[in-house]
Structures
1.
Amino acid sequence: MPLDDEARRILRLNDKGSYTVPTAGLYPYQWNWDSAFAALGFASFDVGRAWVELETLFSGQWANGMVPHILFHRDDPGYFPGPGIWGTEGVAGKGEGRVASSGISQPPVAASLAWRIYGCDPALGLPRLRALFPRLMAFHRWFVAARAESGAVATTHPWETGRDNSPDWDAPLAANDPVGVAPYTRRDTGHVNARMRPTKEDYDRYIWLVQFGRARGWDDAAIAVESPFRMADPTLTFILLRACRDLGAAADVLGEDRAEIDGWIAHLEAGAETLWNPETGAYDSRNLRTGALSGSVSNASFLCWWAGLTDPRPIPTLRRILGAAPFAVPSFDPEHPKFDTLRYWRGPVWAVMNTMIGLGMEEQGLGPQAARIKADTARLISENGFAEYFDPVNGTPAGGGTFTWTAAVWLAWASPSAGEG
Ligand code: DGY
């Protein structure tokens, strides 16, 4: 199928040998969850290369278990903020001799996708999964210890959630005046239309939070106590919960003890419930400084089924959102005044989120709605190309082009030939 060929071409185009960039120019390094999805895409035609992708990602793991959101394998002046701004060199949590990196993590989808990749070729995958298992354990242990004090997983930076400029973060960011941000030049708006990217007000605050973490040597305990930004997030919570379930399945196959994993699952399930918002009828973000829920419905709300929760409560809200958007699933509620069809995580559809939402819904008996989400994803890609994200009203491709994770989930899920391999 020509689109399958094009998707494979994009993965090869963005392949730097042992890791894959999301797209040249805009994102010239290895991003954590992008890379895990790249691995899933490779697994549809080269399972060995898929494992290499994950192994390279975990080669950047910090001594404390954290897997950074960006690994700066080689310098590229086309991206801001680069390694010099993050200042992670020599910090205690990182340890000696590690790959240059950012100081925060990203949605920990790696264990879930490693488990799927293992299923593509168990004979080839068994030793690779066995070797990766202790690293995945250390990553999850770090997340639970450093971020899940409320049960739900908290973030210290919007970039950590992957949903950088979601309206979920507007109130906590606005409450903080970004005083003392060193002058900087954005690079992202040199690559794509500024109308599709976060605003300058957002960026000032992103950089302020980077400076804040850096000033504390990226010490998780200090940041947890002192940062004005501490948001319990459904993306991180649901993705970690699912990843713990998949890590538990891996433990069973490997003959490893899973008691610690089961403890994490129970902790996160209780935490997920703290994100339920009866007023919106959806899972929401919670500000751990004020206790307030954001009051917004995002695509992260519908990752609850991917997390393995059997919960019918969000179904009416799902129906409303599906009814309001010509293309599902918009990253933000189309009936909310802050909905913006093109601006990154304030409205556009993201194919990777659709993949997790759709797979989770199928598992939880929501087949017809899941089929709609998959059909919309396939149509968006086949009519508009492998864009970073899409306008949910008219399908306009937005952000970066020739995008790795869009190509990857096409091959692994949205293509009519997916799963035939
Ligand atoms: C960016 O630079 O826009 C990224 O999303 C940060 O990870």
2.
Amino acid sequence: MRYIGCHLSASAGYMGMVKTAEGIGANTFAFFTRNPRGSKAKKEDPADAARAVAALADKGFGKLVAHGAYTMNLCTKEAEAREFAADVLADDLRRMAAVPDQYYNFHPGSHVGQGSEAGIAYIAQALRKALEPGYPVTVLLETMAGKGSEVGGKFEELKAIIDAVGSEHVGVCLDTCHVYDAGYDIVNDLDGVLAEFDAVVGLDRLKALHLNDSKNPFASHKDRHECIGQGSLGVSTFAAIVSHPLLAGKPMILETPNELPGYAREIELLRSL
Ligand code: FE
Ligand code: FE
Ligand code: ZN
């Protein structure tokens, strides 16, 4: 089964997103758990969540891939800001319990000069604490482009976080634009990159993908998403990804610069490949 979807606005609630997803041919979706550039979360609506749980099962949707706020930096320099980010993470995981057994993806963080080792330790500490109550959610570390002091541009860093947390509820979401910008050549050697991921992290930890073309060339460390087929990755790379046996059944989420009609066309294109 191919589970393909895109980022949707959470303003109409879970049921609103399920309906929008169906309307554009999606059978999974992503959404921000709170204002992506702030930290304010929506009021919780248990009845809406309960209806969505039933609808997702009934319609055979793949797992959802929620996205944490961009402002949530678990390894920032100031202790107070770090604690605030850790509290946001813990609250997001608590909220995810309303739709059990989905994924929650987030950007590991930027160590802002403290070094990736210190960053990894802070991220792991926050994750251990947030996972402690045992909410029914699996947290995904997003592969990053390695821009500035971003943690997660190397598979080894993701592996170090996973090992330091020591929970089955931690996986990875592979963003195609980010890994290509980070220097993993999925255009010419997708099999080699997946073999490297398997050797370093283990493919059992790879739970979801973000499908984005890239505005920039290989290893540019930039992170600018492009529409499918219009960037440096090209349609043939996405054809290989959506039909790769090692990636079968994993939710694949578009985060391309599109409105809903553009997403509908890209979903249709990906299903045709
Ligand atoms: Fe992201
Ligand atoms: Fe992404
Ligand atoms: Zn990105």
